[in-house]
Amino acid sequence: MADSERLSAPGCWAACTNFSRTRKGILLLAEIIFCLVILICFSASTPGYSSLSVVEMILATIFFVIYMCDVHTKIQIINWPWSDFFRTLIAAILYLITSIVVLVERGNASKIIAGVKAAGAALKRERGLRIQGPSLPLFLPESV
């Protein structure tokens, strides 16, 4: 019994780490890192805004694990691309609003850095929506 578990473990690990090398996996990892940096900056300056970063980091981690372990292929009831799209859209809007509020309030350097990072995360999410989101007529690239 222990030998069969040991033999299946490397295959399972390889299957789980293959997702982190895809474009979507890299975007989700970057999103988690951005949320962590924003959380550190907000916690140092204004703890009231840090809950947004905590919630978004948890949701991004949940979606990363869901995609990494191929749960999205096993649970067909939920439309995973649309739920991920709406999650990132709502997060981008909330980060943009929060960063504008933080930048309008004059504060110390960590508060300004947190506002700039939140705005950068919102813009990154917008670009990620265009790359990874479901195909919508709104996000078609402009022809040059």
Automatic annotation (TrEMBL):
PROSITE patterns linked to this entry: MARVEL
GO cellular component labels: membrane
Bilayer topology term: Multi-pass membrane protein
Sequence intervals crossing the membrane: 26-45, 85-104
Domain MARVEL: 19-137
InterPro entries the record matches: Marvel, MARVEL-CKLF_proteins
Keywords assigned by UniProt, alphabetized: Membrane, Transmembrane, Transmembrane helix
Subcellular location: Membrane
Function recorded in the entry: May play a role in cell differentiation in the intestinal epithelium.
PANTHER family the UniProt entry points to: MARVEL-CONTAINING POTENTIAL LIPID RAFT-ASSOCIATED PROTEIN, PROTEOLIPID PROTEIN 2
Protein name as it appears in the record: Proteolipid protein 2
Organism: Panthera leo (Lion)
Lineage: Eukaryota, Metazoa, Chordata, Craniata, Vertebrata
